[in-house]
Amino acid sequence: MGKFAKWLGAGVGFTLGGPIGAILGYTLGSFVDGFSIQDFTQEQEEYKQQTQQRTRVHATSGDFEISLLILASVVIKADGKVDRRELDYVRMHFVKMYGKDRANHAFKLFSGIIKRQISTRQVCMQIRQHMTHSSRLQLIHFLFGIAKADGNVSSSEEQEIHKIASYFYINDYDYTSIKAMFYNESDSAYKILEITKNVTDDEVKKAYRKMAKKYHPDRVQSVGEEHLVGAKEKFQKIQSAYEKIKDERGMS
Protein backbone atom coordinates (compact mmCIF):
# COMPACT_ATOMS: atom_id res chain seq x y z
CA MET A 1 0.00 0.00 0.00
CA GLY A 2 3.05 2.24 0.03
CA LYS A 3 2.83 5.76 1.39
CA PHE A 4 -0.94 5.47 1.81
CA ALA A 5 -0.55 2.55 4.20
CA LYS A 6 2.14 4.39 6.14
CA TRP A 7 -0.20 7.37 6.53
CA LEU A 8 -3.06 5.20 7.72
CA GLY A 9 -0.93 3.22 10.14
CA ALA A 10 0.77 6.24 11.69
CA GLY A 11 -0.73 7.06 15.06
CA VAL A 12 -3.85 4.93 14.66
CA GLY A 13 -4.88 3.05 17.79
CA PHE A 14 -8.40 1.97 18.75
CA THR A 15 -9.85 2.54 15.25
CA LEU A 16 -7.98 -0.47 13.88
CA GLY A 17 -10.49 -2.75 15.56
CA GLY A 18 -14.27 -2.99 15.93
CA PRO A 19 -16.85 -1.53 13.50
CA ILE A 20 -14.52 1.32 12.47
CA GLY A 21 -11.82 -1.17 11.56
CA ALA A 22 -14.33 -3.08 9.44
CA ILE A 23 -15.30 0.10 7.57
CA LEU A 24 -11.64 0.88 6.91
CA GLY A 25 -10.94 -2.66 5.75
CA TYR A 26 -13.75 -2.80 3.22
CA THR A 27 -13.02 0.74 1.99
CA LEU A 28 -9.32 0.10 1.51
CA GLY A 29 -10.01 -3.20 -0.24
CA SER A 30 -12.13 -1.37 -2.80
CA PHE A 31 -9.43 0.94 -4.14
CA VAL A 32 -5.97 -0.08 -2.94
CA ASP A 33 -4.28 -2.41 -5.42
CA GLY A 34 -3.07 -5.67 -3.97
CA PHE A 35 -4.83 -5.10 -0.65
CA SER A 36 -7.56 -7.39 0.61
CA ILE A 37 -9.94 -7.32 3.55
CA GLN A 38 -8.04 -10.33 4.89
CA ASP A 39 -4.85 -8.27 4.93
CA PHE A 40 -6.51 -5.61 7.03
CA THR A 41 -8.08 -8.20 9.33
CA GLN A 42 -4.62 -9.68 9.91
CA GLU A 43 -3.25 -6.22 10.75
CA GLN A 44 -6.08 -5.77 13.25
CA GLU A 45 -5.30 -9.10 14.91
CA GLU A 46 -1.60 -8.25 15.15
CA TYR A 47 -2.51 -4.92 16.71
CA LYS A 48 -4.80 -6.60 19.26
CA GLN A 49 -2.02 -9.02 20.21
CA GLN A 50 0.37 -6.12 20.73
CA THR A 51 -2.08 -4.32 23.00
CA GLN A 52 -3.74 -7.24 24.82
CA GLN A 53 -1.92 -6.37 28.03
CA ARG A 54 -3.52 -2.92 28.06
CA THR A 55 -7.02 -2.50 29.49
CA ARG A 56 -7.72 0.64 27.46
CA VAL A 57 -6.40 2.02 24.17
CA HIS A 58 -6.48 5.81 24.26
CA ALA A 59 -7.35 7.99 21.29
CA THR A 60 -4.52 9.29 19.13
CA SER A 61 -4.34 11.98 16.48
CA GLY A 62 -4.88 9.30 13.84
CA ASP A 63 -7.95 7.96 15.64
CA PHE A 64 -9.46 11.45 15.80
CA GLU A 65 -8.76 11.88 12.10
CA ILE A 66 -10.46 8.61 11.12
CA SER A 67 -13.42 9.34 13.40
CA LEU A 68 -13.86 12.74 11.74
CA LEU A 69 -13.88 11.16 8.28
CA ILE A 70 -16.50 8.56 9.12
CA LEU A 71 -18.86 10.87 11.01
CA ALA A 72 -18.46 13.58 8.37
CA SER A 73 -19.70 11.11 5.75
CA VAL A 74 -22.78 10.38 7.91
CA VAL A 75 -23.71 14.07 8.25
CA ILE A 76 -23.04 14.95 4.62
CA LYS A 77 -25.40 12.20 3.45
CA ALA A 78 -28.08 13.03 6.04
CA ASP A 79 -30.10 15.27 3.71
CA GLY A 80 -30.01 12.76 0.86
CA LYS A 81 -27.41 14.53 -1.25
CA VAL A 82 -23.67 15.14 -1.27
CA ASP A 83 -23.03 18.87 -1.52
CA ARG A 84 -19.72 19.98 -3.04
CA ARG A 85 -19.46 22.85 -0.54
CA GLU A 86 -19.57 20.39 2.34
CA LEU A 87 -16.91 18.22 0.73
CA ASP A 88 -14.75 21.31 0.20
CA TYR A 89 -15.24 22.25 3.87
CA VAL A 90 -13.95 18.84 4.97
CA ARG A 91 -10.95 19.11 2.65
CA MET A 92 -10.20 22.71 3.73
CA HIS A 93 -10.20 21.82 7.41
CA PHE A 94 -8.07 18.75 6.88
CA VAL A 95 -5.52 20.82 4.97
CA LYS A 96 -5.58 23.39 7.78
CA MET A 97 -5.15 20.74 10.48
CA TYR A 98 -2.86 18.20 8.84
CA GLY A 99 -1.20 19.80 5.82
CA LYS A 100 -1.83 19.19 2.12
CA ASP A 101 -0.17 15.78 1.72
CA ARG A 102 -1.83 14.17 4.72
CA ALA A 103 -5.16 15.78 3.81
CA ASN A 104 -4.95 14.29 0.30
CA HIS A 105 -4.52 10.81 1.77
CA ALA A 106 -7.41 11.40 4.16
CA PHE A 107 -9.70 12.62 1.40
CA LYS A 108 -8.83 9.62 -0.75
CA LEU A 109 -10.03 7.38 2.07
CA PHE A 110 -13.04 9.64 2.62
CA SER A 111 -14.14 9.22 -1.01
CA GLY A 112 -14.50 5.50 -0.33
CA ILE A 113 -16.04 5.82 3.14
CA ILE A 114 -18.82 8.13 1.94
CA LYS A 115 -20.08 5.39 -0.41
CA ARG A 116 -20.56 2.89 2.40
CA GLN A 117 -23.50 2.21 4.68
CA ILE A 118 -22.44 2.96 8.27
CA SER A 119 -23.94 1.94 11.60
CA THR A 120 -23.73 5.30 13.36
CA ARG A 121 -24.55 3.81 16.75
CA GLN A 122 -21.80 1.17 16.61
CA VAL A 123 -19.20 3.66 15.40
CA CYS A 124 -20.14 6.19 18.09
CA MET A 125 -20.03 3.54 20.82
CA GLN A 126 -16.49 2.64 19.80
CA ILE A 127 -15.43 6.29 19.78
CA ARG A 128 -17.10 6.93 23.13
CA GLN A 129 -15.17 4.14 24.82
CA HIS A 130 -11.79 5.61 23.90
CA MET A 131 -12.17 9.35 23.41
CA THR A 132 -12.46 12.00 26.14
CA HIS A 133 -15.59 14.08 26.61
CA SER A 134 -13.75 17.20 25.40
CA SER A 135 -12.66 15.43 22.22
CA ARG A 136 -16.21 14.22 21.58
CA LEU A 137 -17.46 17.79 21.97
CA GLN A 138 -14.85 18.85 19.40
CA LEU A 139 -16.19 16.25 16.97
CA ILE A 140 -19.73 17.62 17.34
CA HIS A 141 -18.46 21.16 16.70
CA PHE A 142 -16.72 20.00 13.53
CA LEU A 143 -19.88 18.21 12.31
CA PHE A 144 -21.99 21.34 12.73
CA GLY A 145 -19.35 23.21 10.72
CA ILE A 146 -19.74 20.70 7.89
CA ALA A 147 -23.54 20.98 7.95
CA LYS A 148 -23.35 24.79 7.86
CA ALA A 149 -20.84 24.83 4.98
CA ASP A 150 -23.62 25.20 2.39
CA GLY A 151 -25.09 28.13 4.33
CA ASN A 152 -27.81 26.22 6.17
CA VAL A 153 -28.03 23.38 8.68
CA SER A 154 -30.93 21.28 7.43
CA SER A 155 -33.30 19.60 9.90
CA SER A 156 -32.11 16.16 8.75
CA GLU A 157 -28.47 17.12 9.33
CA GLU A 158 -29.25 18.54 12.77
CA GLN A 159 -31.17 15.38 13.69
CA GLU A 160 -28.23 13.22 12.63
CA ILE A 161 -25.76 15.29 14.68
CA HIS A 162 -28.12 15.18 17.67
CA LYS A 163 -28.27 11.41 17.35
CA ILE A 164 -24.47 11.22 17.29
CA ALA A 165 -24.30 13.47 20.36
CA SER A 166 -26.70 11.20 22.23
CA TYR A 167 -24.59 8.15 21.36
CA PHE A 168 -21.58 10.10 22.67
CA TYR A 169 -23.38 10.68 26.00
CA ILE A 170 -23.26 14.44 25.46
CA ASN A 171 -25.96 16.13 27.53
CA ASP A 172 -28.52 18.61 26.20
CA TYR A 173 -26.77 21.63 27.75
CA ASP A 174 -23.49 20.89 25.96
CA TYR A 175 -25.26 20.02 22.72
CA THR A 176 -27.40 23.17 22.72
CA SER A 177 -24.33 25.29 23.48
CA ILE A 178 -22.40 23.97 20.47
CA LYS A 179 -25.46 24.10 18.21
CA ALA A 180 -26.04 27.77 19.10
CA MET A 181 -22.57 28.60 17.76
CA PHE A 182 -23.96 27.96 14.26
CA TYR A 183 -27.32 29.75 14.53
CA ASN A 184 -27.85 33.52 14.47
CA GLU A 185 -30.72 33.86 16.95
CA SER A 186 -31.49 36.55 19.51
CA ASP A 187 -30.57 34.28 22.41
CA SER A 188 -27.69 32.39 20.77
CA ALA A 189 -25.05 34.07 22.96
CA TYR A 190 -26.90 33.00 26.09
CA LYS A 191 -27.35 29.44 24.82
CA ILE A 192 -23.63 29.23 24.07
CA LEU A 193 -22.90 30.07 27.71
CA GLU A 194 -25.66 27.65 28.82
CA ILE A 195 -27.72 30.36 30.53
CA THR A 196 -30.97 32.28 29.93
CA LYS A 197 -31.60 35.99 29.48
CA ASN A 198 -33.04 36.42 32.99
CA VAL A 199 -29.79 35.63 34.84
CA THR A 200 -27.84 38.27 36.76
CA ASP A 201 -24.60 39.86 35.59
CA ASP A 202 -22.69 37.86 38.20
CA GLU A 203 -24.23 34.66 36.83
CA VAL A 204 -23.15 35.66 33.33
CA LYS A 205 -19.56 36.06 34.52
CA LYS A 206 -19.69 32.77 36.38
CA ALA A 207 -21.08 30.98 33.32
CA TYR A 208 -18.35 32.43 31.11
CA ARG A 209 -15.59 31.24 33.47
CA LYS A 210 -17.13 27.77 33.54
CA MET A 211 -17.45 27.53 29.75
CA ALA A 212 -13.98 28.98 29.13
CA LYS A 213 -12.56 26.24 31.33
CA LYS A 214 -14.64 23.51 29.69
CA TYR A 215 -13.73 24.51 26.14
CA HIS A 216 -10.14 25.56 26.64
CA PRO A 217 -7.99 24.26 23.73
CA ASP A 218 -5.63 22.49 26.14
CA ARG A 219 -8.36 19.91 26.75
CA VAL A 220 -7.91 18.35 23.29
CA GLN A 221 -4.11 18.33 23.23
CA SER A 222 -4.15 14.59 23.92
CA VAL A 223 -5.26 13.92 20.34
CA GLY A 224 -2.65 16.15 18.68
CA GLU A 225 -1.56 19.74 18.31
CA GLU A 226 -3.23 19.88 14.90
CA HIS A 227 -6.66 19.80 16.52
CA LEU A 228 -6.01 23.01 18.40
CA VAL A 229 -7.20 24.90 15.30
CA GLY A 230 -10.79 23.77 15.73
CA ALA A 231 -10.60 24.00 19.52
CA LYS A 232 -9.43 27.62 19.34
CA GLU A 233 -12.26 28.43 16.95
CA LYS A 234 -14.79 27.01 19.42
CA PHE A 235 -13.13 28.82 22.33
CA GLN A 236 -13.33 32.10 20.37
CA LYS A 237 -17.08 31.65 19.98
CA ILE A 238 -17.38 31.35 23.76
CA GLN A 239 -15.46 34.61 24.15
CA SER A 240 -17.49 36.36 21.44
CA ALA A 241 -20.76 35.31 23.08
CA TYR A 242 -19.59 36.73 26.40
CA GLU A 243 -18.52 40.02 24.82
CA LYS A 244 -21.86 40.33 23.04
CA ILE A 245 -23.79 39.86 26.29
CA LYS A 246 -21.52 42.34 28.08
CA ASP A 247 -22.16 44.96 25.40
CA GLU A 248 -25.93 44.40 25.47
CA ARG A 249 -26.03 44.75 29.26
CA GLY A 250 -23.41 47.46 29.56
CA MET A 251 -21.33 45.24 31.81
CA SER A 252 -17.79 46.30 32.71
From TrEMBL:
Protein's name according to its UniProt entry: DnaJ like chaperone protein
Pfam families in alphabetical order: DnaJ, TerB
PROSITE patterns, alphabetized: DNAJ_2 (PS50076)
Taxonomic superkingdom: Bacteria
Source species: Tenacibaculum adriaticum
Domain named J: residues: 188-250
